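Response to reviewer comment R2.3. The reviewers asked that we include at least one raw input/output pair. We reproduce the pair for non-specific serine/threonine protein kinase here without editing.
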Amino acid sequence: MNILQLCLKIPDNEKKHFVRLIDKGRTDTFKFIVMDLVGNSIDNIQRRSHHKRFSMATCINLGLQTLEGISDLHALGYLHRDIKPQNFTVGLREKSETIFLLDFGIARRYTEKGSKAIRLPREIVRFLGTVRFASRNCHRSREQCRRDDLESWMYMVLEFTDCSALPWCRTVDRKVVCTQKEKLFSGTYTKHIASLPEEFRRVLHYINELGYQSTPDYEYISNLLKRGAARSNVDLTEKFDWIKSADESEVRIFSPTFHCKSAVLGFCTSKSKSRLQG
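Raw output as returned:
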């Protein structure tokens, strides 16, 4: 909520990947927020797509837009800490080619309030987020920083290329998953990841070199992806796969069937929870 409220005070070009907060309030039963309506999550779209993978043009364009959203969030002084395809969604109508970042439930300020100074790391931090996309620091119960959001982002981008691209995609044991992530960053690549443009591996290396206090060079990462696209003859002016191949049946799948311009989310208050449970 704080993040969406902060977005009301910044220029439009710095918040294009955040949904617009329209209203908020509470009743005796619920707290609620009203925000712009958006479409399906990237995860949902990928699972319904052909072979559960995107074209390289869509993968890289998704990578560029989601990276920009994360960069804008970091500029506000916050970490997301749960970057994954489920938390990015497509816009509707005139914003159908814009990707939005959602769910700031475990976001945390990484700067001191009213300052750009980085907060001191806590000694032990409980595991938060999603095992599949969590950073190695999250697995190690260490304080997260901007690098950790980028690490999770890179796992997500790799998965855009194929739903089973991550070697740990079907593993639930957190220790095993962390070990496999360490192998990835040490240069042990699967056949699929090794087949991707070299720039993907350069991004992995760059992220791995960042420290707790480091300010990531988002433009450098973006340029690496664009360079990989150019070397691989990937046309980044192409529309997203789901837009390019859309027919009437797909439109019904990917778009809400009702005509509404905003969404209302309700959250039970403690009083209403007791009523519901009683």
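The chain has a mean pLDDT of 89. The chain is about 40% helix and 10% strand. Further pairs are available on request from the corresponding author.
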